[in-house]
Design goal:
The protein is built from 8 helices and no strands. By secondary structure, it is an all-alpha fold. Helix 1 runs parallel beside helix 3 and helix 7 packs across helix 8. The protein is globular.
Length: 172
Amino acid sequence: MYRTLQYALLFLVAALLQIFLFNNLSLSVYLNPLVYVVFIALLPMETTPIRMLLAGLAMGLAMDWTMGAAGVNTIATVFVAFVRIHLLNIVCGKENVHDGGVPSARRLGEKSFTVYLALTVVLHNAIFFYMEALSWSHALLTLLRLGVSAAVGVFFCWLIAQVFTSRLSPRI
C-alpha cells in the first residue's frame, strides 16, 4: 500500500472528528452522522481484500472502544470493507476499478464518486442503526434516523474526501 503516512493521518483525523465533534452533536435524537467510514471509502482501489478487512476492523474497534459500543461499529465497518470492491464495480465499472488509484471525484467523475460515497455511507449507517435498535418494532423511526444521519454524513464525508484527495494525483 502506498501513501501509508497519508492514510494513517486520514484514519486519525476521521476517528478524532467522529469522537470529538460528531459524537457530541446534540441537535436531535435522529442526527448521528457517522463520518469515520470515509476512511474505508478512500482507501486505494487496489487494496487487497485482507488489508481492507483489517483496516475496517481497526477502525471499527477504535470506534467501539471510544464510543463504548458493543461491536456495532465493528460489524458495520467490516461489512462495508467487505462489500466495498463490489460497490466500486457496480458504480464505476470493473475497468476503472482494476486500473487502481484513489477513489476521488477527479478519478471516477463527480457523479460516480458521489453515488459511491453515498452508497457506502448509507449501507454503513443502515447496518449500524438497525443493529443498534435490534428490533423491527421501531423500523420507521430507525429509517428516519438513517435518512437524516446519512444525508448529513454523506455531506461531511464528501467534504473530507475533497480535502484529502485535493493534493493527491488521480493516478490514471
